[in-house]
Structures are given as C-alpha cells and as structure tokens.
Amino acid sequence: MTTDATDTTVTDEAVRSLHATTDPRLRELLTGLIRHLHAFARETRLTQQEWERAIGFLTATGQTCTDTRQEFILLSDVLGLSMLVETIHGNNADRAAGATESTVLGPFHMTESPARELGADIDLVGGGEPCVVSGRVLSRDGTPLPGAVVDVWQADGNGFYDVQRPEVQPPGNGRGLFTADAEGRFWFRTCVPSPYPIPTDGPVGDLLRATARHPYRPAHIHFIASAEDHVPVTTHIFVAGSDYLDSDAVFAVKPSLVQEFTRTDDSSLAREFGVPNPFRHARFDLVLEHS
Ligand code: BEZ
Ligand code: FE
Hints:
Shape: globular
Bound molecules: benzoic acid, fe (iii) ion
Number of helices: 8
CATH superfamily of the largest domain: Aromatic compound dioxygenase
C-alpha cells in the first residue's frame, strides 16, 4: 500500500479492503462513508491537530452517554442528520394524502411510558397550566382505529424530562401509554409544555457555544401512535405561538404539526375532563397509513 494521501490511492485501498464483506448493504454504507470522509479531509485540508480535536470530541461524546443520556443522538440532532434521515424515510410522501407527518424521536424516549387510563393526568407534579389533549387515531380513509396505542412523553413546566431530574420528578412524570377507545378516541390531561434547552452541559453544548447557536426547542409534546395493520408514526405536536418555532435547535418543526392549544372557558367540558375552568385544549387527530 502506498501512503501518498494526496492522491486517491489510500481511499481506493480502504474501499478495496471491504471486498470480503458478505452483507452488501454494510459494504455499500462503509464504502460511502470512507469516500465521503476522505473527500471531506481533502476538501478542508484537515490538519493533524484538527483530527485529534475531533477524536477528542467524539470520545467525550461517547463518555457522556449513560443509560438515561444519549449524547450521540443529540449530536446527530443538532447537526440536522436525524431530521435528514427522518425526512428521507419518514412518511412525508404520505402527508399530501393526509397522514400525520413524522418528526425526530429525540433522546428522551429511553424509558417505557407507564400504561394509563384515558383521561389520566400525566403531570404528576403539578404547577403548570392545566391542559387537555384529545383527538382520534384514524386510518387515512377516516376509519377510526379502536385499540390504537398512543405513547406520549413531554418535559415538565420547567422544561425538563423525568429522567433529567429524578430528584424532583417521579419516574413516568410527563409520560403515558394510552389505548384508544372503541371510536379511536384518546384524551389525557397534562400541563402546557414550554420551550426548553436541549442539554448543554456536555460536548454538544460546547459545539453550540463554539458556533454561537442557541439550544432551545419550541414547546412540544411527543407521540408514537401505532395500530394493527398500520405504519406507526413518531411525531410531535408543537404549541402554536411558541418561541423558537422558526429556529428549533434540532430542525424538527413541520408546519402541519403546529397545533393551537385553545384557551377554553366551558365549565361543563372542564368538569367532564376533570380540569379547572378555564383550561387549554389541544385537539387533533393522528392519521396513520395502512401497512
Ligand atoms: C426532545 O424533544 O426531547 C429532544 C429532541 C432532540 C434533541 C434533544 C431533545
Ligand atoms: Fe422533547
């Protein structure tokens, strides 16, 4: 093997080293990775010190990961890679046909949501603005999907997930696994979410500071909706009017996912949902594509 990296020899040799790979997709992915990494180093004339700094950064990113923290997903998110992959493979083509658009999973779905009765309050701590979220899970042709499962998770009124603040939030705070009723309906109580910063106390925070970027995400609630014979959707709803809708730190906002959390003054409806009157009410349907 030659060591003259100013020509393509090392690239071709590295690619050739994959010739015995039996998995064709693995070979395709690694070939592309080698070619693009090498092209990047040539194009930017990457120095030895910069390479060492990048290795140090990636090492620190790995060392920051724990059972409840995924700094690599966060890195992928702030570089726009998560959203790119999601956009390539998400159900965006189906959007025109009426299915709910998908968006990023994010790093905080690492713990199972507790099963809860319809109407339950997922805000176990209280203190936020009371809110009802309700809607139906439908097939794209409008047929309700009884028994559909709706997995929900959100940050508390201070912008933290339960796993980030185990000393002040009980496990499962802001999370719930709901089963739609015989008409495909779901509803639950919570607090209106607020914008929050993604974690900035690790290498990804250093990256944001070095590039003068803010770490905020607009207020949102996460959902995964699934039903028999349908393609599950991983998505959020964003609170209409929230700050940062036009500058989400992870590029995950799609206009169809922005929903009104309408201020509602209706004491009989408030009684029905078990919330104080007035309350905020987000109503939307989750529409799934047939598999
Ligand atoms: C979230 O919404 O939970 C999230 C998504 C991407 C990065 C950080 C947080
Ligand atoms: Fe979130």
